[in-house]
Amino acid sequence: MSETKEEKEREREMINEELLIQALEEENLDLFREEFTALHSYDQGKFFMKIGDHLRIRLYHYLSPEEMAELFEGLDIEEDEYQPILAEMNPSYAAEMLSEMYADDAVDVLNELDKDQVASYLTIMDDDSAKEIKELLHYEEYTAGSIMTTEFIAISANQTVRSAMYILKNEAPNAETIYYIYVIDEDKRLVGVMSLRDLIISDDDTMISEIMSDRVMSVSVGDDQEAVARKMKDYDFLAVPVVDFQDHLLGIITVDDIMDVMDKEASDDYSKLAGVADMDTVDRNPFNAAKKRLPWLIALLFLGMFTASLIGRFEETLDKVAILAVFIPLIAGMAGNTGTQALAVAVRGIATGDLEHENKWKLIAREAGTGLITGSICGVVVMVIVYVWQGSFFLGILVGFSILVTLIVATLAGALIPLLMHKLHVDPAVASGPFITTINDIISILIYFGMATLFMSYLI
C-alpha cells in the first residue's frame, strides 16, 4: 500500500528531527545550521521545545541572537514557560535576543518575568531598544497600549511619493507591517492612511496629501484589547493605529497580535463558563488541576447544601406525597439546561458586541418568549406522561405547570444575570454554567414545592 501524503510528511519531519539532534550531539555546526535554518520558524519552535535543556544550551551557541529572536517570536508555549527558558541562556545573549524581537513581542515575554529580571535585561540591552520597550511596559495590561508595536512606517502629508518610497525602503526591514502606511502632520498627529498599493501605483511627484485617505479608523491607547479585537474583526483590518487623546500616533496593533488576544479571551470565557480558574494550560499534575478547580467546586458545594436544606424544609410535603421526590431531578435538570442556554446566548452577544447594537429589553422579551414556548410544550408533554404513568391528573398538572414556570424564570435568569454583571463592569462569563445551574436548581425547587404545598389537598 502506497504511503499517504501525511505519512510521507510525518516521516520527513522525523528524519529532520533525528538529523538535527544527531548534529547537535556530535557538535556538527555546519550540518545543523544547514538543516535548521531551512525550516520554517514555526517548525524551528516545535523542534526547540521537543529537545531537552542540555541540547538547547548547545543550540544557543549555534544560532545568533537575531535568529533566536525570530524563533522565539513563533514559539507556541504557555506564559509561565518563558522564565525557565530564558534562564538557560547567557544573560547577555538573552538581552540581545529580546532587543532583536519586535518590541510588543519582547514586552509580552518580559511581562512574565520578575521585576528584578526585567530591570537586569533592560540594563544590558542597547539604549534604543531598552527605551522603546520601557515605554510599552508602562501601559496597563489588557489595553491597546500593552499589545501595540512601535515598529511602523509613518510619513508626512507634505512630501512626495518619491520621498515616501525612499523612507519605506529604508524603514521596511524593521517595520512589523508595511501594508498600511500612516500619514502624520508636523506635530505627529495622525491625519491619514494609505495602502502600499496606493503608494506604488502613484506618480513619483504626487503629493501624499492628494492620495491619502483622511478617514482613519483608530483606537485609543487605553481601549480594552477585546474591544480592539472586535473593531479589527468588524472592519477586516490587517493593522489599526493607536493614538492618545490628542491623536498623536503612538503605535499600531497587527492582526497576528489580535488573533492571540481573541484566543486568550475565548479561553478565558470558556474557563469561566466551565467554572475553572484557568484553562490556558493543560495541567499534567493532578494537584495543580485540583487547586484551580476547587474554589468553584467548594462555592458550588455550599450552594448545593443550601438546595438540600431547602428540600428539607418541604419534608412534610414529601411525607404526604412521596411521589413528588421522583420529579425533583427532572425539574432541576430542565431549569439548569434552559438557563445555561440563555446564558450562552447572552454571554456570546456581550463578547461579540452584538448586544451593543440591540435593545437589551428586546433580548429579555425574546428570551421570555422562548421560555414561554419551550416551557408550554415541555409542560404539556410531561403532564401527559405523568398522567399516563401515575394515573393522577392533578400530579400531571403540577409537574407540567412547574416546568412551564421554571423554564420561563430560568431562561430570564440566564439572560438577566450576565447583562446585570456587564452593567456592573464584571465579566459576564463569571456567571458560569455550574453557577447558573445551581441558582436555577434553587429557583426550581422553590417553585415546584411551593406549588405542591399550595395544592396539597388535590394531591392526597
Automatic annotation (TrEMBL):
Superkingdom of the source species: Bacteria
Residue runs in coiled coils: 7-34
Keywords: CBS domain, Cell membrane, Coiled coil, Magnesium, Membrane, Metal-binding, Transmembrane, Transmembrane helix, Transport
Cellular compartment(s): Cell membrane; Membrane
UniProt cross-references to Pfam families, sorted A to Z: CBS, MgtE, MgtE_N
All copies of domain CBS, residue ranges: 148-210, 212-270
InterPro entries noted in UniProt: CBS_dom, CBS_dom_sf, Mg_transptr_MgtE_intracell_dom, MgtE_N_sf, MgtE_transporter, SLC41_membr_dom, SLC41_membr_dom_sf
Regions crossing the membrane: 294-311, 323-347, 368-389, 395-421, 442-459
Keyword Nuclease listed: no
Key word Metal-binding present: yes
Annotated membrane topology: Multi-pass membrane protein
Function: Acts as a magnesium transporter.
Family that this chain belongs to: Belongs to the SLC41A transporter family.
Subunit structure: Homodimer.
Protein name per Swiss-Prot or TrEMBL: Magnesium transporter MgtE
Organism: Rossellomorea pakistanensis
Lineage, highest ranks first: Bacteria, Bacillati, Bacillota, Bacilli, Bacillales
